[in-house]
Amino acid sequence: MRLAFLGTPEPAVASLRAVVRAGHDIEVVVTRPDRRRGRGGATSPSPVKAAAQELGLVVAHDLAAIEDADVERGVVVAYGAMIPASLLEHVPMLNVHFSLLPRWRGAAPVERAILAGDAETGVAIMTLEEGLDTGPVHLERRVRVDEKTAAQLTQELAELGALALVDVLASPDLLEHPVDQRGTTTYAAKLTSETFHLGPSMSSVEVLRTVRLGRAFTMVDERRLGVRVAHANGETRVAVGVIARVDGDVVLGTLDGDVVLDRVQPEGSSVMEARAWWSGARLGHEPRWT
Questions:
Q1: pLDDT over 90 for what percent of the chain?
Q2: Is residue 39 very low, low, confident or very high in pLDDT (cuts 50, 70, 90)?
Q3: CB 190 within 8 A of CB 106
Q4: H-helix segments, the chain
Q5: Which residues, including other chains, have CB under 8 Å from residue 240's CB and lie 6 or more apart?
Q6: pTM score, whole prediction
Q7: Boundaries of every domain in the chain
Q8: Which of these, 97, 261, 106, lies nearest to 168 by C-alpha position?
Q9: 2-188: CATH superfamily
Q10: Are 276 and 270 in contact (CB under 8 A)?
Q11: Fold of 194-281
């Protein structure tokens, strides 16, 4: 099948490689423009652009390139921008969405599934419509969430979605007979800095779910402290809002017990063991986390 591929971040690369391996002709890959990264002025391509160039595919940064290409269908995986209805009328498109629709329509379905404590999530291959993730579903696949981090779960869903996408493209029946979404609709609101901010009003479960997102932080003595790995021990050894060294552990006091910090990232430093951070932190009297 002659396809246009639209995608930008690393999780979309698995689907790009999968459709190429399956023998489909990718006439054009559309991705977001190169971005400045780091302190210098140099730019770098998106992961999808880098993969497409490795595969010898034509790359564009403008959706108009699809209108000029001879394609039967488009495939969209985390492209990062809305597709105009006029283009969808011209080129039908499939979207690989990382949730079990209609649960978690929107920008951050993996993170919202973790924060909500969902037991399972999955991928849905749907027809792209003008509405936000409203299209009928051609195929879905499910996975357990368990205690996976957002990075681990996203990688699993990316690989699962790539396989499901190839299955749909290979099946006239799946392509031609999608099923309307059924169930309660929820929206995966965009993540903000506050999404990752750990505070003493949170339970231990809420703290640990946020840590699994990968960018969690709290403030200790007015300094930012990233929390990369932590665990609960079922004990209550410090008061709510207190951070302390207890029996060799660095402990946050939450609403319902201890959260033990394993690995942290002080502001301006690299990731380190929490005990090493504590030893060199020179904290004030009775420090608190906020």
A1: 91
A2: low
A3: yes
A4: 13-21, 47-54, 64-68, 85-90, 109-115, 150-170, 172-176, 204-211, 274-281
A5: 200, 253, 254, 255
A6: 0.94
A7: 2-188, 194-281
A8: 97
A9: Formyl transferase, N-terminal domain (3.40.50.170)
A10: no
A11: Methionyl-tRNA Fmet Formyltransferase; Chain A, domain 2 (3.10.25)
